[in-house]
Amino acid sequence: MDMRAVVLDGPVAPEELRVRRVAVPEPRSGWVRIKVEAFGLNRSEYHLRAGLATNARFPVIPGIEAAGTVDAAPGGEFAPGQQVVAMMGGMGREFDGGYAEYTVVPASSVIPVKTDLDWATLGALPEMLQTAHGSLYTGLAIEPGQSLLVRGGTSSVGVAAAVLAKERGLTVFSTTRNPQRLDVLRELGVDYPIVDDGNVAQKVREILPDGVNAALELVGTNVLPDTLKAVAIHGTACFTGMLSDAWTIPDFYPMDYLPNGVRLTAYGGESSDLPAEAFQRYVDLVAAGKLPIRIDRVFTMEQIGEAHRIMQDGKAVGKLVVRVLDPAT
């Protein structure tokens, strides 16, 4: 039996991505085969496709997340037909990932879920919520009543982080380089939307003179010094994203780089950082309309090149999702 999948033989331009017919993978004990219904796009997949990833192996089916139903689980960890999501754990890098009709992943990367959400919406959630949740709770240890700056606020993780922080009871500052997107941030519940002109710290401190308790850096090391200047003494900045593709700090000298008393941490965790009960709670809140997750656009698998172009060019506000549908149906 074969299936449709996007296969990378090496770095390519977005427009060169193609759907192929390949064999359906067979699961071994401890692994689960998932019939994929939808998958979200992630920046790391752009890095892989563009040749920027340092741990890439080719050929490979990309995709670090997927949503669907269990097709086979030889180890008995999940029941056939069970609704699940999968993420991380080497998906799309060490072994084939979610850009396919079927994917085989370790059982440890699978999270069961029960929901009436449509597949496109569920497909948008796993990695977005995992990264936002991990950044906020592992990277920043947020608490109700604190203030948070999200640098890169209209990215999918930025949107999720702002929404989860508001749900936790924080005051949220969030940035966008496009003034026309300020209203989008307000609609998501952001208290202080800010246009990022390179001087975010100054704008934050005009509102909150002592600075924020926590800052989530999603843009990159090129703006990290400014983000750090927005953080209060004994506050924490968490480096999670590299939307600018800048991820190293040349000639790092801590005494000069870090403001007095400001902590710098990072987050790059796994699916285990998002417990199943926490994911189910978030999904239920989304279904109830109490967690406003934003999907920018839903594509078919045959539109994967167009989707990657939009992701690469930073044209999306929120999550880009691919719905895996058989074109014959």
UniProtKB/TrEMBL annotation:
<keyword id="KW-0521">NADP</keyword>
<feature type="domain" description="Enoyl reductase (ER)">
    <location>
        <begin position="12"/>
        <end position="322"/>
    </location>
</feature>
<protein>
    <submittedName>
        <fullName>NADPH:quinone reductase-like Zn-dependent oxidoreductase</fullName>
    </submittedName>
</protein>
<dbReference type="InterPro" id="IPR036291">
    <property type="entry name" value="NAD(P)-bd_dom_sf"/>
</dbReference>
<keyword id="KW-0560">Oxidoreductase</keyword>
<dbReference type="Pfam" id="PF13602">
    <property type="entry name" value="ADH_zinc_N_2"/>
</dbReference>
<dbReference type="GO" id="GO:0016651">
    <property type="term" value="F:oxidoreductase activity, acting on NAD(P)H"/>
</dbReference>
<dbReference type="InterPro" id="IPR020843">
    <property type="entry name" value="ER"/>
</dbReference>
<dbReference type="InterPro" id="IPR013154">
    <property type="entry name" value="ADH-like_N"/>
</dbReference>
<dbReference type="InterPro" id="IPR011032">
    <property type="entry name" value="GroES-like_sf"/>
</dbReference>
<dbReference type="GO" id="GO:0070402">
    <property type="term" value="F:NADPH binding"/>
</dbReference>
<dbReference type="Pfam" id="PF08240">
    <property type="entry name" value="ADH_N"/>
</dbReference>
